[in-house]
Amino acid sequence: MTGSIVDLEDAVASLPAAARAAADRILSVSATTGRLEAPPEMHDWIRKFFGSVDAVRDQRIVRVNNLVTLEGALFNELRALRPMEVKGGDEVRATIASSANDPFCRPETGTPADVFGRVKGEHGMTASNVAKYDGFHGVLVFNEHDPLAPLDASAIRDHLTTARRWAERALEADPAARYYFLMWNCLWRAGGSIVHGHMQMTATRGMHYPKIELLRRQALAYDVKHGSDYFDDLWVVHEALGLGAEVDGVRSIASLVPIKEREVLVLGRPGADEASLAPAIAKAVSTYRAAGVVSYNMALYVPPLSPDGEDWRRFPPLARLVDRGDPANKTSDIGAMELYAASVIAADPFRLAEALRA
């Protein structure tokens, strides 16, 4: 099935019985119309940015809530056309070029090492983060300076494997630091303070980071209540709606409750290694690049590196990727709505899914 976010209510209603039942367990979908009357003096300005006065007079807004995780999104494609102060796109390339020969270009002398040393992969080397989030906080410095250089599945797999080896070294140094988290902030728009391509890793104690632990508990509660696997049902719903794509057997979802624009959820299988996600992550990144997206975040959720007495059997390795907008744009993509209420989204996930399947 293919469609548009504006037709989501009808699409869910027309799903086959099993998928419809899963959708009813997971999703709440509703639509409303926002209306306004613009003075004649505004009409030229409205036509310039939005195409027509009618386009803004009646605006269809689709609200989607995930009833399991309580994530939510408000979709209005019109918001993508709103005026923003944007510099020339060449600024990003100029900044990347001007930052060459930074300390990350010579990591063995330009970055500190962790107490257990460095881990080297084919495409990168680890360092210790100078200003740490947690007791163990490392950086995986890419060999390639340009953060927008092509990354295929083998390079992604190597990065995931190198980062995992770093986490295992941290666990050897402290057997209580079993909760491993990997993040990738590409360019300053996504929170990257260094232009040079890199990922970051942390290993924490006590329990997993709250959002990961919360998802584990929500998935377990879903199984108890419905006798069904949450992650499998999430895939069934998105795939039936035309919002899923399989890449080398790994499930990719164009999320209906994205935290921001074009969020992709990559779902592995319980017990699988996160390296199995590499082809799907590479596909998501290449899809972003083809759409002109250069700044994005990625987070990797995995069970603890050693048993902690909790039930992680149904928790798969999964990655979340999200577009963070034009790095040359002064207008932030995240405001009070995203921080404290629900995400406001302009991009249609159905268009993202088409690109992921291409």
Describe the structure.
By secondary structure, the chain is α+β, with helices and mostly antiparallel strands. The chain has a single domain, classed as HIT-like (HIT family, subunit A). It is built from twelve helices and 13 strands. The chain has a nine-stranded antiparallel β-sheet. It has a four-stranded mixed β-sheet with strand order 1-2-3-13. Helix 2 crosses helix 9 and helix 7 (153-173) packs across helix 10. The chain starts with 7 loop residues before the first helix and ends with a helix. The model is unreliable at 84-88 (pLDDT under 50).
SSE order and pairing:
Layout: H1 8-13, H2 17-26, E1 27-35, H3 43-50, H4 53-57, E2 58-66, E3 72-75, H5 90-98, H6 107-110, E4 124-128, E5 136-142, H7 153-173, E6 179-186, E7 198-204, H8 210-226, H9 230-240, E8 244-247, E9 250-254, E10 264-267, H10 278-290, E11 296-301, E12 318-323, H11 336-340, E13 343-345, H12 349-357
Helix pairs in contact: 2-9, 7-10
Q: What is the count of DSSP helices, taking H or I runs of 4+ residues?
A: 12
Which descriptor suits the 3D outline? Answer: globular
Low-confidence stretches: 84-88
Q: What is the C-alpha radius of gyration, as a whole number of Å? A: 21 Å
Would you identify the CATH H-level superfamily? HIT-like
Strand order of the largest sheet: 4-5-7-6-11-12-10-9-8
Give the helix proportion (percent range). 25-40%
Second-tier CATH architecture: 2-Layer Sandwich
Structural class: alpha+beta
Secondary structure: number of strands:
13
Mean pLDDT value: 94
Instruction: Write down the CATH topology.
Output: HIT family, subunit A
Tally the structural domains: 1
* Intertermini distance: 15 Å
Q: What is the element string, with H for helices and E for strands?
A: HHEHHEEHHEEHEEHHEEEHEEHEH
Strand % is 15-25%
Can you tell me the CATH class?
Alpha Beta
Q: How would you sum up the major sheet?
A: 9 strands, antiparallel
